[in-house]
């Protein structure tokens, strides 16, 4: 990177060091394309921020093909079964043996981020922590400019040929673009919990209960994620631990299916389920990837996977544009990625409808349909195959 007065110039400026920005940065470094990543948080913060865990086979393949899977190979666990519990009983869906016969790999997102930061720096990458991008100027021009501010309030300016907007759902890139968007606010809130406890079963468990969804997602031998549907503005964040465990046990049918393995709740936050689709994923020289490009609820574990996929596509397109002055892949980026985003959104939406108690005027009728869906998923081979394929697909 060159210093041009007080403005730093690079080929690709990446906003955000989440999975999208870090995969993009690593692939650009490997292709010898100059880039800088700006991240508003500290390194310690992003390396501890627990979020996703389930990686689809295609994400794992991208990481493997680009030499980013050492940690994943050492610490990732293969998962291929999910379980549904409802008033009708419980059934397992061994998706690794249905559909395309592929499992997930469970690897906590903070571990992946830690690996990707280390590898980016090892590849000689320029990563600026605690630098918040505040404004994007001239995104339709030849050399867009980003104004950023550090923790001491000093201003920094970066000029680039292209900007990778990978700064998440509430980042600057999403706020800047004026493209068309559709939104669904689901009016469903989850209390997202991390427990210092081994998973109760080695499978994902989806509890469909009239009082609200409850779920268990294994993360590691010592840590388990639980979700508990709760009132959007209620006091669930302040619930005592015994109350949380009692509610999880009730909605997951612990009396019939066995007690939960309890432990200290080490993290809790509220997740408001929301989807947003932007089209196109680009405006001028600013290209969006990951959560910046689409918001998707965690119900089907697609967000981090779409981030990896978008970053791979963007890295290839930027590389061709910067190294060979060939813009065809950049021109196609949005049209190529959108169908995959839409498919993930569609499946995620169907999971939301399957897992949560219907509300509104036709609630009782839709509850019956939900029962029919669960019955079909338990008994129909073709439905199970389709679910299995969609579950690991991105
Ligand atoms: C509780 C929970 C559970 C989830 N479970 C799953 C799962 O099992 N599977 C799955 O696939 N997905 C899951 N997700 C979604 C997944 O975590 C996200 O989709 C993923 O983090 C998206 O990656 P990203 O790089 O696009 O964005 P992010 O990870 O949000 O990274 C964006 C980065 O940009 C930085 N940033 C923001 N604004 C600026 C700025 N102005 N300047 C500089 N930097 C900025 C942020 O600090 C952040 O580090 C879950 C999410 C949550 C909240």
Automatic annotation (TrEMBL):
Coiled-coil residue windows: none
EC number from the UniProt entry: 1.14.13.2
Principal EC category: oxidoreductase
Pfam family, one: FAD_binding_3
Alphabetically ordered keywords of this record: Oxidoreductase
Alphabetized GO MF terms: 4-hydroxybenzoate 3-monooxygenase activity; FAD binding
SUPFAM superfamilies, per database record: FAD-linked reductases, C-terminal domain, FAD/NAD(P)-binding domain
Top-level division of the source organism's lineage: Bacteria
Domain FAD-binding: from-to ranges: 10-347
InterPro entries on file: FAD-bd, FAD/NAD-bd_sf, PheA/TfdB_FAD_monoxygenase
Name this polypeptide is given: p-hydroxybenzoate hydroxylase
């Amino acid at each position: 990177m060159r210093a041009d007065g007080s403005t730093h110039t690079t080929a690709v400026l990446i906003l955000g060091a989440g999975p999208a920005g870090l995969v993009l940065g690593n692939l650009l470094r490997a292709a010898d394309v100059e880039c800088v990543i700006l991240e508003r948080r500290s390194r310690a913060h992003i390396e501890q921020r627990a979020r996703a865990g389930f990686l689809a086979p295609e994400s794992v393949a991208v990481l493997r093909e680009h030499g980013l899977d050492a940690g994943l190979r050492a610490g990732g666990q293969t998962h291929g079964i999910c379980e549904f519990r409802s008033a009708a009983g419980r059934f397992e869906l061994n998706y690794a043996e249905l559909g395309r016969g592929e499992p997930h790999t469970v690897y906590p997102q903070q571990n992946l981020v830690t690996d990707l930061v280390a590898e980016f720096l090892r590849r000689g990458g320029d990563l600026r922590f605690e630098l918040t991008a505040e404004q994007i100027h001239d995104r339709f021009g030849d050399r867009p400019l980003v104004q950023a501010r550090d923790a001491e309030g000093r201003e920094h300016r970066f000029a680039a040929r292209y900007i990778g907007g990978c700064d998440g759902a509430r980042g600057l890139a999403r706020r800047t673009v004026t493209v068309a968007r559709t939104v669904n606010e689901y009016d469903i809130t989850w209390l997202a919990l991390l427990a210092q406890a081994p998973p109760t079963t080695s499978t994902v468990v989806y509890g469909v209960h009239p009082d609200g969804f409850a779920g268990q997602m294994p993360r590691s031998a010592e840590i388990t994620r639980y979700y508990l549907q709760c009132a959007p503005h209620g006091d669930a964040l302040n619930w005592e631990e015994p109350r949380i465990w009692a509610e999880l046990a009730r909605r997951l049918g612990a009396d019939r299916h066995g007690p939960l393995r309890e432990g200290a709740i080490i993290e809790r936050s509220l997740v408001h389920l929301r989807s947003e689709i932007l089209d196109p994923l680009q405006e001028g020289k600013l290209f969006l990837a990951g959560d910046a490009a689409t918001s998707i609820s965690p119900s089907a574990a697609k967000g981090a996977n779409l981030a990896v996929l978008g970053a791979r596509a963007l890295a290839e397109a930027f590389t061709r544009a910067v190294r060979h002055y060939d813009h065809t892949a950049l021109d196609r980026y949005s049209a190529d990625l959108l169908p995959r985003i839409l498919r993930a959104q569609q499946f995620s939406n169907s999971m939301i409808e399957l897992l949560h108690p219907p509300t509104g005027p036709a609630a009782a009728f839709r509850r019956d349909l939900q029962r029919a869906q669960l019955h079909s998923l338990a008994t129909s081979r073709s439905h199970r195959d389709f679910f299995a394929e969609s579950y690991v697909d991105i």
